[in-house]
Amino acid sequence: MYAVTGATGELGRLAVAALAKKTSPDQIVAIVRSADKAADVLPEGVEIRIADYDQPATLAPALDGVTHLLLISSNDLQSRQRQHRDVIEAAKSAGVAFIAYTSILKADTSPIGLAETHRDTEAAIRESGISHAMLRNSWYFENYLAGLPTTLEHGVMIGAAGDGRISAATRADYAEAAATVLANGETGVFELGGDTSFTMSELAAEISRQTGRDIPYKDMSESAYADALQQAGLPAPVASMLADGDAGIAKGALHDDSKTLSRLIGRPTTPYSTSIAEGLRTS
């Protein structure tokens, strides 16, 4: 029996859908907080179980009979170290045999602040003695699509990534890789990124090409970028997190040329030009 935490999230629902193509839906448990939402977005036949990261007593019952677990990292940045450790402890108690965890690229050496909680979770999984796979994802390309309307409105893309290369990939590609590893029980550390990396200047150039407009990339210092994001309305902690991520990119933290992701999914990763075209159609 397979289980996916955060199964109604943007990555989780894609992982469940991909897993349903590799095994029978009745062998999949979707661990969610809302049954109503799950029924709307998950494949028919998937078993829905209610559990909450912040209610540890709900976790072990939700994992009853589960052998393979995909632990998708929580989006609660303040609490997720505790939340993840509670899930891992519940998995151990329930007799889960294999855990795949969605971590961050180069988690053990990454200078990006977000990597700290991932390092902690990876350590907890190793300490548990459960067989495991670390799915170290680079950036989701959707992060850039979310900012596309603002870029088009102002005619400029801003950041603090310098000339750092980014091996972003789509959530669908990462989800398919996670489903593959989970279904196969393939252990190890997987550094995952898109086949074709890009710099922010190259990304801006591709947006310019597809829109027929001149949209340059303006590089800033980390602090200036954080200030600009706050002025745009983002809370200070979020602005600092994004600026810190860009500073990490400038140091190579999100670049990977191993093509491990395309190997796992059995095809080339989605080109970033294709993702931009789709983003322009829907923005």
UniProtKB/TrEMBL annotation:
Signal peptide extent = none
Pfam families named among the record's database cross-references: NAD_binding_10
CDD domains, alphabetized: TMR_SDR_a
What residues does the NAD(P)-binding domain cover? 6-184
Mind telling me which InterPro entries this protein's record contains?
NAD(P)-bd_dom, NAD(P)-bd_dom_sf, NmrA-type_oxidoreductase
Q: Which PANTHER family match?
A: NMRA-LIKE DOMAIN-CONTAINING PROTEIN, QUINONE OXIDOREDUCTASE 2
Q: From the Swiss-Prot or TrEMBL record, give the protein name.
A: NAD(P)-dependent oxidoreductase
